[in-house]
Design goal:
Belongs to the uracil-DNA glycosylase (UDG) superfamily. Type 4 (UDGa) family. By secondary structure, the protein is of the alpha/beta class. The protein has eight helices and six strands, in the order αββααβαβααββαα.
Length: 196
């Protein structure tokens, strides 16, 4: 089965999973299933829920602008969230909501199999790197062996664009992290990942 069909099938599974928390629209993710770079946010907000697309509000505009400024097309990357429905009042996702949606995110990543995963913000980062600190570790490239699988994932956490919008230091770091992404991609392409 090709990646696009596998993702469609996974989306249907989520839609029909009645045990998942949150009752709003499912915002599965969008972009190129054959992408090199996968961006993962926290959870959709109000604008995302209205448009049924990830990262289309203010944070999303900032994210998408930085993608385009690299000379990349938004359609060439893939954008999704850990929690795929909007928490009420735009509150942070609860630990049990993250836990409930996690297995689906894992399968989504396994299907896409990107060269670099960019978690946006601490919730998404801590899924890959539980002990990491966003202010210390954003902008760095990590190798993560996930769930004892035989594949190393390359993970480059960045500040959440909402944090970048709130402060100049985070905005600067966010911009620098983005500018460095093509280099990181090159580095990952040069590494011959050992098979464990
Ligand atoms: N914030 C997120 O983490 N995800 C979105 O899709 C929108 C805002």
């Amino acid at each position: 089965m090709d990646k696009a069909s596998a993702l469609k099938k996974l989306e249907q599974e989520i839609i029909h999973d009645n045990n998942l928390p949150l009752g709003t629209n499912l915002i599965f993710g969008e972009g190129n299933p054959n992408c090199d770079v996968l961006f993962i946010g926290e959870a959709p907000g109000a604008v995302e829920d209205q448009q049924i697309r990830p990262f289309v509000g203010r944070s999303g505009q900032l994210l998408r602008k930085h993608i385009r400024e690299l000379g990349w097309k938004e359609e060439d990357v893939y954008i999704t969230n850990i929690v795929k429905r909007r928490p009420p009042e735009n509150r942070d996702p609860l630990p049990e909501e993250i836990t409930a949606y996690k297995p689906y995110l894992t399968r989504q990543i396994e299907i896409i199999n990107p060269k670099i995963i960019v978690p946006l913000g601490r919730f998404s980062m801590n899924y890959f790197l539980p002990d990491a600190k966003i202010s210390r570790d954003q902008g760095h490239l990590f190798e993560v062996v996930f769930h004892g699988k035989t594949r190393i994932w390359h993970v480059a956490p960045m500040f959440h664009p909402a944090a970048a919008l709130r402060g100049t230091t985070a905005m600067k770091a966010f911009g620098e992290g983005f500018k460095n992404l093509p280099n990181m991609l090159k580095k990952v392409e040069e590494i011959k990942s050992p098979v464990l």
